[in-house]
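Exercise 3.2. Students should predict the tertiary structure of the chain below and write it as structure tokens, then compare their answer with the key that follows.

Predict this chain's 3D structure.
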Amino acid sequence: MSQNLTKDRPAASLSFEEALARLEEILERMNAGTISLEESLKLYEEADQLIASCNKRLNDAERKIEILVKNRNGELTLGSDERPVTQDYKAFTL
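Answer key:
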């Protein structure tokens, strides 16, 4: 993935894994210190879009997990703040 993916494809159209891989590539290029200021700014803007896209996907996934965490009656278990009770991700590992 050496091309600027968000120019050809909007960040939201990338899979979570593609966006994360592109973020890692951007970080490596910026940390190398061999790119111009202008290119650094372009990469920073692209990274910002990718981060927003990844955050949205993670928040959506968290909401789906909240919906799946139900009590025995098939209803969401609500906390004292009237928000769905969630489980730590580690609780789902086998």
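Discussion points: The longest helix spans residues 37-68. The CA atoms of residues 11 and 52 lie 9 Å apart.
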